[in-house]
């Protein structure tokens, strides 16, 4: 799929961090993941990249994902992954396996328990 074809693909807006290493560099750039889909992501960081450059993204719960810079705009870049990932894995809470949480809880919205005043899953 071309970058234009993928604009209508479902993507998740979220806020998490990832390390991105541009091909030929030994130092990763810490970046904010602004949105994520199975085929790519938008990241915000201190990049020195051009469209078409190869890179590796280290995503939590998924690991190293290779891809190509699809577009660059100011401090934001679009990345097209070489192979699709499962975005739900990346969003899974740290220390909790999504498969161990019952389905009705995974899909329920978070709420505040009025008795203890804390946000609960």
TrEMBL record:
Residue ranges of domain PilZ in the record: 11-91
GO molecular function, one term: cyclic-di-GMP binding
Entry-linked InterPro entries: PilZ_domain (IPR009875)
Protein name: PilZ domain-containing protein
